[in-house]
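ping. complex inputs:
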Amino acid sequence: MKTPPYFNMEYDMAEAFDYVIVGNSAAGLQALKTLRKHAIDASVAIIDREDLPAYSRVITPYFVGGKTERDNLFLVDRDYYNQTGVTTLFGRNVVALDAEGRQLELDDGSSVAFGKLLLATGAEARQLTITSDRSSVLRHMADAEKLVELMQGAKSITAIGAGLVSLPLLSHAPEFVEKHLVVGSNRILSRMVDAETSAILEKRFTEKGLQLHKQNDSVAIEEGDRLQLQLASGDCLTSDMLIVGKGVQPNCELASAARLQVDYGILIDDYCCTSHADIYAAGDAAEGKDFVTGEPTIQGNWMTAVEQGENAALNMMGKTCAYDGSLKNNITEVLGVDVAAIGECMDDTTQSISVHDQSTGRFRKVFLNDQQQVIGANLIGETNDAGLYYHWIRTRSKFPGKQVLSGTNSYAKFQLRMA
Ligand SMILES: Cc1cc2nc3c(=O)[nH]c(=O)nc-3n(C[C@H](O)[C@H](O)[C@H](O)COP(=O)(O)OP(=O)(O)OC[C@H]3O[C@@H](n4cnc5c(N)ncnc54)[C@H](O)[C@@H]3O)c2cc1C
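pong. complex structure:
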């Protein structure tokens, strides 16, 4: 095995790195930090087809909307990798994995051998079958840069798909811009919140000028001075650009071709290990246990990717530790409305309790299981108490009673009792 330091792009193909990470984002970066914390002398390589230091995809809608600078997206700078003695192979695509030979093949024909491997390959945005030069998904920096260009001077924007890409992007577009949202289902944020929460949000967003086209889809685009988007309903929307937010597809091709177990994502056990003992997976590409249901799932959130990246790295080093399972955990602001969804908060949950203060718009809803334990929460209005709900879910706490949901005063008193 190699001995450090190994600086950018200098590596000997004949020797195996102790650890190789594919994917330099939430999961990969956290794994790298964890490896460096505990295995200072190990040789580590990180590979990514984007030639950039790790950045936050979560903040890219703010960048597109001109609310933050591109530089503020980066989580580390290029020097970070050199300083930590990690070999970076950025701008390089891994095209094949030989699991038994413990080797990766890169797009330039070179190969990289590993002792242990982490697949932190994330996901790609689903594209539409109909496309235009004035349409884009948002997953990578290049997409964000294209959207910045498209948004210049746009008077009307249409987004397709009502999730956490379309809504924040519309939200951060200038206020005067006409905003259309085309949704396949009969409600917005259907994968994030329950129907009651969704209905409240729809009302708030439409009051703020969002034009909703539900149970609809785009069927054709006519190019011209402006885009003419034909909808399945027969309506036609005139827009200057199109945002495509139709969900994501996990990057599992390497794992599938190497005959690792793959369902929707790369299947991992409680130690973030795949069906191959020396290959781990984490983040949006990995399908692991949900904390509440115990079912294999892909949460598709930043926190899960970080937690799994850390857990995978610890187990790769032989520090055996089980991961409790992932939790839905989305906290965002759309069109000036704070929204949070934590844990299991779907329509079929056994029991739910909600409080809605019409005068302030503050809404709290908790979801309980048969044992009265809190398993999920939807919050509208201030979301600075989201951590409390997260804590209840993670500690499988019994719900303390409806009084803690109503009003910030009761909440503050409750916190004092907890302290
Ligand atoms: C616009 C947007 C808004 C979001 N908002 C939120 C939010 O508010 N809250 C939240 O929790 N989450 C949010 N997310 C989701 C969050 O960003 C993801 O859950 C997180 O990025 C997953 O991290 P990851 O490391 O698993 O994968 P990714 O971030 O997808 O990174 C995977 C990396 O692997 C690289 N890669 C893949 N295959 C290969 C290969 N074969 N060779 C080389 N490199 C490869 C890719 O280039 C990529 O850099 C948002 C995502 C987007 C796009």
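The chain is about 25% helix and 30% strand.
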